[in-house]
Specification:
This is N-acetyltransferase domain-containing protein. Keywords: Acyltransferase, Transferase. Belongs to the acetyltransferase family. GNAT subfamily. One of its GO terms (molecular function) is N-acetyltransferase activity. Strands 1-2-3-4-6-5 form a 6-stranded mixed β-sheet. It has a domain of about 110 residues: Aminopeptidase, CATH 3.40.630. With about 150 residues, it is an alpha+beta fold.
């Protein structure tokens, strides 16, 4: 599965480790992952990159790990660190592989409408609710670059 994730051109997955002390990364616990699922080609009019994050280990939730991981992933994928309030990536980091960079306006999130913490997390990253999908009990959020959500207000 790891090989497929690494080689799949429609998916970008970063594993989230908790670095609690100095040492080899192999000794750090895996606490979650952050993903982009690319639907179509960036040149397509209806292209979108669906963002997902999971902090699987409950002891690591509510610590800001998800926000930091999303900022890094979205900055990397879009080449727009300032859009996500993230410091620029180091000059030593190679440029993203094609089809990146992705336009921030192509980013979409689908979240359970009852998952208020996730909705708030993405609002901090300048996503706003654009649609309620009642059949799936979820909201669709898109990057709007500073717009405010009216969901739940």
């Amino acid at each position: 599965m790891q090989k497929k994730w690494r080689e799949d051109p429609d998916k970008l997955t970063f594993i989230i480790l908790s670095v609690e002390k100095e040492g080899a990364l192999s000794t750090c616990p895996m606490v979650g992952d952050v993903n982009l699922f690319l639907k179509g080609h960036p040149s397509d009019e209806d292209f979108e990159a669906e963002v997902e994050i999971m902090i699987a280990e409950s002891d690591y939730r509510r610590r800001g790990i998800a926000l930091e991981a999303l900022r890094l992933m979205l900055s990397y994928a879009t080449g727009s660190p300032s859009a996500f309030m993230c410091p620029p990536l180091s000059q030593s980091v190679p440029p993203p592989p094609k089809p990146l960079p992705i336009l921030p306006q192509s980013l979409v999130v689908r979240v359970s409408q009852d998952n208020r913490p996730s909705i708030s997390l993405f609002e901090k990253l300048q996503f706003s609710v654009v649609r309620l999908v009642q059949v799936f009990d979820e909201v669709e959020m898109r990057f709007v670059g500073g717009g405010l959500s009216t969901y739940g207000e």
